[in-house]
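Section 5.1 Outputs to date
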Amino acid sequence: MFFQTDIQAKDNSAKLSPCPAPHDGALPNGAPQNESSTKFCHYPVLTPNFARPLAVTFFGLPGSGKGTQAARVAGELGVKHLSTGDYFRDQIARKTPQGMFVQSFIAQGEMVPDEFTVDVVRELLASQPYRNGVVLDGFPRTANQARILETMLKELGYGELVAVELGLEESVARERMKARAASSVSQRCDDVDAVFSNRLAVYRDEMPKMREYYASRGIATEVSSLGPIDDVYRAVWGLIEPRLPKRISSCDACN
């Protein structure tokens, strides 16, 4: 372990009310109600009574919407959302030893070393807040990390991993990053054009390897991230739903 991990992440673990009819005007974690949200039956919070908690990970190019979709899925399931990018940016902003170490790589558009990132993720997943299940984004980013994650999840007692690739053309990813940087009050260092180009080069090398690995494991599916966020979410949820450990299909079953 390089540094003592500062275990912090957005808490999406509040319990959900299964199959509300209708919603009381708000979704878990304060998400606004919308048309699509009423079409999905809610699932119980996974508890230690489930021998094999669910693990979902999103991967894809920068700007493909991994964080947006991961947060929605985590809120729907009532489990934690773990974004390694958000975690590292928080460490950088607070100028922790971890943050200073990570910044030297992110500022150049380079991948944070596997060993360091793996240590951070392992310690977070082993902590109590994540024992009910987790939705990851930003990890894994390499085929090596993908292999390590599967082993790690098995060691920690998680069930089958669901891996979702959000497909996006590089040209669209670049335009989205430019728009995000232009609209940000404090521009993210990893959105600078030269840095983004370096990141694309890394992804261009690693993405085929990750697809090949996950295809060999039969656990990955791809969803186009073009189109409205709600439409992408419907497609994502349609892939994840059949793999949930327990489904409450009607409100009668929730009683």
